[in-house]
Write a structure and sequence with these properties.
single chain, about 15% strand, six-stranded mixed sheet
Length: about 575
């Protein structure tokens, strides 16, 4: 039943995957993906060679079964995907493939910083945070720009939002609906939401216990995600969204050290529904029984707001609580060396995944969080305490071989940040936000990956009318990273040589990079930054360095005309 379309790829869990695709007319049911370390010659289409092709195919299958059995056995003690494989799949189909050899394994969606504001009022401007005076009177009476008079009018009338304010409900649904509409054929394998579901300045609205309000907004956002992605089709038999906590998802912005334990536990069931309880073991692959990651996720999230989950046979997700590393996180007394034991836990998890490597079978970990270990692009202040940057970068450097990527949000801008170690293959990637509170236009990312490798990402964005209402909010493709910047891959070396370094002298590239930062392309502020040599240098140095001292030396040396540090 096999036709002659044959291809080879370098995907794990096999060293080589030979895909024999059905060449029968539409409606044909035969399709198999088998793997083995065997070179397969192109099948001849002439009838006199068909018997030879079938014999070689059988030989490949036998070798493939033995090879894959070894790979699957080492996963018997590992974390598993949530549901059993479909009977329609071939027995040895591991991971998705949209074509025999060159097609991507799949796609996932990355959305960050929704900041849903249920009380958004289009008739009121940013001076009053687009909220009615009566909702925030106690705070407004003590603020120079917020009073009963200033809060009446001043808005653009744009129901989809205003720059300088958070996101109304209609924009949340518009963004999620657009993300669903822009999904590639077959849908997303999974969805990542990297924090800040709750609007800024909750303290203005409630004098007293804010927990019900914050928890209620988080639940509304999660419900909206599920409404817009009710049947996420996945290639890996795993459907769902994964959430990380942002600084506005705490009862007090950025949290208070040592006081969040009960808060993490209260969010565990709503934010991690697949991890609730203790699911029974299930048969996964030949070699034994495996469980969901419930013992890890259900114990670490309530204790510290972090967890790990198996996404595929080749890829794990580590969702970190990075708010506890922030400069603004308030600790009582000296900050602990390892808050909530997260660094020690992450080290153990990376060691575990590293130990699962067998030959060419090398699973990896996709690390996600809210606040990145980086400088922002506003006042260029470091987002983490330096001692935590040192601890984290040391961990990543030691386990560079099993880190698939690092994805964050928080900055409301579309950026990359290079790590100091040459061993770390990819930069830190920062996604733009949906909320336009920092003068950004709404945007999200769609990632393309194969096995445990990130291949590319595409940014989709919409433009808010700054001066009046608009009838609709249309999200369109802004750019694909590798095409836009001429990258052969997403490797850090490519970003360093083709994007970071040329920012200093390539005016066209600098304009392109600045356009992408906040997804805006005009305005006085935009053109002022475009012409600013100092801002350009500082943007370059922020992409190169995560520590304040290194950044300052880089800026000084570059502005003076010397080599950047």
């Amino acid at each position: 039943h096999f036709g002659a379309t044959i291809g080879v790829s370098e995907e794990c869990p096999s060293a080589r995957r030979v895909a024999l695709m059905d060449d029968s007319p539409p409606g044909g049911q035969y399709r198999a993906l088998v793997a083995g370390p065997v070179e397969v010659a192109k099948a001849a289409t002439a009838s006199r060679w068909r018997r030879s092709v079938r014999l070689r195919t059988a030989l490949v299958c036998v070798c493939a079964g033995a090879w894959l059995l070894l790979c699957f056995q080492r996963h018997a003690a590992a974390l598993a995907v949530a549901t059993a494989p479909s009977t329609a799949q071939a027995a040895f189909a591991v991971g998705p493939a949209t074509s025999a050899a060159t097609g991507p394994s799949g796609y996932f969606l990355h959305i960050s910083d929704l900041h849903f504001d249920p009380w958004y009022n289009a008739s009121i401007g940013p001076d009053c945070f687009c909220n009615d005076y009566r909702r925030q009177a106690a705070w407004c009476d003590a603020a120079p720009t917020c009073n009963a008079t200033a809060c009446e009018g001043g808005g653009t009338g744009n129901v989809f939002g205003q720059r300088g304010c958070d996101m109304p409900e209609v924009t949340m649904h518009a963004a999620l609906a657009a993300a669903a509409a822009w999904a590639p054929a077959g849908g997303y394998d999974f969805i990542l939401l990297t924090g800040d579901y709750v609007r800024h300045k909750v303290r203005r609205l409630v004098a007293g216990d804010k927990r019900p309000l914050v928890r209620g907004i988080i639940k509304q956002v999660i419900a909206a995600v599920r409404q817009n992605f009710p049947h996420t089709k996945v290639h890996h038999n795993f459907a769902g969204a994964f959430y990380a906590l942002g600084n506005d998802d705490f009862v007090v912005d950025y949290g208070r050290g040592g006081s969040e334990d009960a808060w993490f536990a209260s969010l565990a069931q709503s934010m991690l529904p697949p991890l609730g309880g203790s699911p029974a073991p299930r048969k996964a692959r030949p070699g034994g029984e495996v469980k969901l990651l419930a013992p890890l996720g259900s114990t670490t999230f309530p204790d510290g707001g972090y967890f790990m989950q198996s996404l595929t046979q080749e890829l794990y997700l580590a969702s970190l609580n990075t708010v506890i590393y922030a400069q603004e996180h308030a600790w009582t007394g000296q900050p602990p060396e390892d808050p909530y034991g997260q660094f020690a836990w992450l080290g153990r998890m990376l060691d575990f995944v590293s130990s699962q490597a067998r030959g060419h079978c090398t699973p990896k970990v996709l690390i996600v969080g809210h606040i990145p270990p980086a400088l922002n692009n506003y006042d260029f202040s470091p987002q983490w305490r330096e001692e935590y940057i040192d601890a984290y970068t040391g961990l990543i450097d030691r386990h560079a071989g099993v880190v698939a990527g690092q994805l964050f949000g928080h900055l409301h801008l579309d950026a990359f940040r290079l790590m100091s170690s040459a061993r770390v293959r990819l930069p830190v990637f920062v996604s733009g936000g949906i909320s336009p509170v920092f003068e950004n236009n709404p945007s999200f990312r769609v990632w393309e990956y194969r096995g445990a490798e990130l291949l590319d990402y595409t940014v989709y964005g919409a433009t808010l009318n700054r001066h009046g209402p608009q009838e609709s909010l249309l999200f369109s493709q802004r750019y694909r990273a590798r095409d836009a910047y001429g990258l052969r891959s997403l490797a850090a070396a490519e970003w360093r040589s083709k994007v970071a370094a040329p920012l200093l002298w390539n005016d066209t590239l600098w304009e392109q990079y600045l356009d992408a930062l906040w997804q805006r392309y005009s305005g006085k502020a935009h053109f002022r930054l475009l012409a600013s040599r100092e801002f350009r240098v500082r943007s370059y140095c922020a992409a190169m360095h995560a520590r304040a001292g290194e950044f300052d030396r880089c800026v000084t040396a570059t502005l003076a005309g010397g080599a950047a540090a």
